[in-house]
Amino acid sequence: MKLYLVRHGEAKPIETDPSRSLTSKGVQDATKVAEFLAKARLTVNEIYHSGRARASETASIMASHISVQRGIFDTDGLSPNDDPSIWTARISRLTEDTMLVGHLPHLEKLASRLLCDDSKSPIINFPNVGVVCLARSHEGWSVEWMVAPGILH
User: Fold this and answer.
1) What is this structure's pTM?
2) CA R_g for the chain
3) What is the tens place of the pLDDT at every residue in 35-87?
């Protein structure tokens, strides 16, 4: 099984947009990464996001480019300060490739928890619209690859 952890795109400041939707750069970067993933023929069973505008919009952009079997779902446990154990428990029951679109510091803590069972030591830096592909084997989780808009042309 593969797990794709995605940080939302750049969001507008709360002072100008209380819902913090994506900026035009956020939309552009998310589209660039989604197009790259589409060329790689990425397929996931489901995409889950936190329900916040910036995560929802990023998830929708991803879904418009890649193959998503069951759909996009707003869910709990992916907000910035949520406990990563909520999703480590859910992930342990997943069998199909899945994408989670969320926020910092949650994604850093979740990745660290899965990779080294320590959510206090962030080991992956998630830029806006950074995607980390984790693969689960019998031995546990490992990083397969990472992509960010800054390295794509």
Assistant:
1) 0.97
2) 14
3) 999 999 999 999 999 999 999 999 999 999 999 999 999 999 999 999 999 99
Contact present, 142 and 11 (Cβ < 8 Å): no
77: which 2 tokens?
Answer: 């446990």
* Gap between the Cα atoms of 103 and 83, Å rounded: 12
Instruction: Provide the residue type at 135 as one letter.
Output: A
CA atoms of 139 and 58, how far apart (whole Å):
31
Query: In DSSP terms, which residues pair with 49 in a beta bridge?
Result: 74, 101
Closest CA to 62 of 105, 8, 21: 8
Q: DSSP for the chain, please give it.
A: -EEEEEEPPPB--TTT-TT-PBPHHHHHHHHHHHHHHHHTT-EEEEEEE-SSHHHHHHHHHHHHHSEEEEEEEE-SS-STT--THHHHHHHHH--S-EEEEE-TTHHHHHHHHHHHS-TTS------TT-EEEEEEETTEEEEEEEE-GGG--
